[in-house]
Amino acid sequence: MRIATFNINGIRARLPRVIEWLEETRPAVACFQEIKCQDENFPHDAFEAIGYKAIWQGQKSFNGVAILARDETPVEVIRGLPGDPEDEQSRYLEADVGGVRIACLYLPNGNPRPGPKFDYKLRWMERLRNRMAAIWAEEVPAVVLGDFNVIPEDKDVWSPAAMADDALMQPESRDAYMRLLHDGWTDAIQAHNPRGGVWTYWDYQAGAWQRDHGFRIDHILLSPECADRLIATGVDRAYRGREKASDHAPVWVELRT
């Protein structure tokens, strides 16, 4: 069972690339972030034409998440991350697919810091931890995946010095991420690539893709039930080099059924 995540950076603008990737790799579940469209403009018909059913939480011009499943409709569990009734940003969607709980997220970037955006990021991460604890308590096989906007360790970035002041690498961001792992969740990419050097994002600026100046911020966290089923994991980095590509590459895990 292949489960993937892809920050698409505008799903309508990159729809040909999305369809291309789905048809070429055929994941059982595909989670998207930054769909950047309102609910009524989500191109669900294009996905249904190639065998995928979708649920989504849109937002005008930015944010937005979606979960697609091949040959079945995801069964929605939660729309929006619990813990702050005033939070109107579309960043979290949770569903059951094929006996697995799927939590798709787009964690706040947090820049500039210090300031309200960084404070919001840290509060959001604490709410996420609380929700992941609730999922854990249900004792269901679970995969929490998406754009976490956290570079976990120095080995996950081409140049720690270049990103030293960024919210993605601050001690508070890293500590909040590590608390999730200490709670018992497995970072799938880390588990199969302990030496690091795996990137999932390359900026559009300064020739980052051509120079391989990337870093890892798209993560897939597995509950123990899913970690025991982990066969393989990877990054479809070739899609970052295609015409009109997202600045992220798809990330995936393969679980034993």
UniProtKB/TrEMBL annotation:
Residues annotated to bind Mg(2+): 7, 34, 147, 149, 247-248
Keywords of this entry: Hydrolase, Magnesium, Manganese, Metal-binding
Example of a GO biological process term: DNA repair
Site, Transition state stabilizer: residue positions: 149
GO molecular function terms noted in the UniProt entry: double-stranded DNA 3'-5' DNA exonuclease activity; metal ion binding
Cofactor note as given: Probably binds two magnesium or manganese ions per subunit.
Cofactor requirement: Mg(2+); Mn(2+)
Protein name: Exodeoxyribonuclease III
Chain positions of site Interaction with DNA substrate: 248
Active site per UniProt: 106, 147 (proton donor/acceptor), 248 (proton acceptor)
Domain Endonuclease/exonuclease/phosphatase: 4-248
Xref: Pfam families: Exo_endo_phos (PF03372)
Gene assigned in the entry: xthA
Family: Belongs to the DNA repair enzymes AP/ExoA family.
CDD domains assigned to the protein according to its UniProt record, in alphabetical order: ExoIII-like_AP-endo
Record-marked site positions (Important for catalytic activity): 218
SUPFAM superfamilies the record matches: DNase I-like
